[in-house]
Amino acid sequence: MDGVTRRHGSGTYCAVRGCNNSWRLLNVWSEGECFDHQPSTRRQCRCATLYALYEKPKTDVESRKWLAALKLKNPPKRLFVCSYHFIDKKPTEENPFPELWLGYERPPQQKRRKLDRNTSDTQSDAVCIEPKFKDAATQWEDLTKTDHSYAAKLDHVNKSTQTGGQTVADDMLLDDDTSLLYTGLRLVDLLHLVSSGASQLTQSTEY
């Protein structure tokens, strides 16, 4: 299943609770100028898109699994989920359903208890735990905190650039997808900004 992009704006949003990615935002971003292929827009060049939106499958079994994962009380007739919520950044044979940052905390897997001899074998061991709902945006924010925040990374990169240590790409271990997720910039754009900032800082120090 391929992601879909549209030229004309639409109010359709990603169906995940708290996620604001939409056709409209994607179209606005796509009309911006590509840094690598100026004056072409991002839509005209072949660079990776910011994200893609995927429609819920029409088959009954797959459709039910999508709805079960999203836990929506009143799902829209046409339901879309953006690529951020898929393990492979899109539905694949190995990971066909949205699983990441779905707006709620998944309960931990329950371990089976050992039954006493006096306990009936027919007694159920399962314990139902209601999932705790959380904004998808909050979940993304927590993810950046585990990486010690983007600002701390940027400061570390600046120091590495000035001291001639590892390359910025090696130090941050980023790809386009990660860079876009944290900063809204493609990796090459981010590296250019960091390099320019380091050069200006060096010149001001010399003066």
Structure description:
Keywords: DNA-binding, Metal-binding, Zinc, Zinc-finger. Residues 14-95 form the THAP-type domain. One of its GO terms (molecular function) is DNA binding. With 207 residues, the protein is mainly α. The protein has two domains: 1-102, no CATH class; 147-207, no CATH class. It is 37% helix and 5% strand. The protein is built from seven helices and four strands. It has helices spanning 23-30, 60-70, 136-146, 150-163, 168-172, 176-183, 187-206, and strands at residues 53-55, 80-82, 104-105, 132-133. It has a two-stranded antiparallel ribbon with strand order 1-2. Strands 3-4 form a two-stranded antiparallel sheet. Helix 4 (150-163) crosses helix 7. It is elongated, with a radius of gyration of 22 Å. The N and C termini lie far apart (57 Å).
Topology, number of strands: 4
| 3D shape | elongated
Order of helical and strand elements: HEHEEEHHHHH
Mean pLDDT: 71
| C-alpha termini separation | 57 Å
The amount of beta strand, in percent, is: under 5%
Low confidence ranges: 4-11, 119-128, 141-154, 159-171
CA gyration radius, whole angstroms: 22 Å
Going across the biggest sheet, name each strand in turn: 1-2
Major sheet size, sense and barrel closure: 2 strands, antiparallel
Helix content: 25-40%
- Structural domain count: 2
- What is the SS-derived class? mainly alpha
**If helices are DSSP runs of H or I spanning 4 or more residues, what is the number of helices?**
7
